[in-house]
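REVIEWER CHECKLIST
Item 1: Sequence provided? yes
Item 2: Single chain? yes
Item 3: Sequence as submitted:
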Amino acid sequence: MVSIDGRGDGKSLIRARGLGKTYRRGGEEIHVLQGLNLDVDAGDFVAFMGPSGSGKTTLLNLLGGLDVPSAGSVIVAGDEITHMSARKLTAWRARHVGFVFQMYNLIPVLTAFQNAELPLLLTSLSKAERRRHVETALAVVGLGDRMHHYPRQLSGGQEQRVGIARAIVADPTFLLCDEPTGDLDRKSADEVLDLLDRLVRDHGKTALMVTHDPLAAERARIVLHLEKGVLVEALSAGRPQSPAPA
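Item 4: Structure as written out by the authors:
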């Protein structure tokens, strides 16, 4: 279940309360997020939509511990991450968050196997254990036969699937997907969305996805719109309801 009214029961996987983010540009303050509340349960698939500059990626970065809010708090799986030290936050991200990016962010000189293995290099797993994890992740995304290929030898859709394998290889608590289909043709985009849907439905993953694509948003179980720094719930992709009461 997803809630944006701040009245969750306290058992949600992800809880944001009064979340705000303000940037300073010269002498001007730009309020990107303002008093945002969000509850996401384990196993949810949430899409965030909204115009460019509405704060979608900023929200993802705050929930994933890549940025620090100007106000409010973020609690994930019982961990209050808002005031963690940089060192603890790095370890927390490695354990709990799988990131999927629009531009794949693969390293060209590494194979699919080596790219997917990167998050595990921060762990205490042995080489044999890392190999088992990587082989499993690549099999899940349908690239078990491409593990020794380099990014230049893969299609865009296959590169993104390597990116997803890298995101899930450490069995994270949740996935943060920032425009995961934004650089793909429709067929490849649908294949990536099918994969994300299976990860949620069959593997119990929790996924939060930023997208401009209504067809991608339709795959999520709930669509939320960011309007002037505030979340509003959508009846369907592109049809926001009124903001939740304060």
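Item 5: Key structural point noted by reviewer: The domain at 42-66+96-240 is CATH 3.40.50.300 (Rossmann fold).
Item 6: Recommendation: ____
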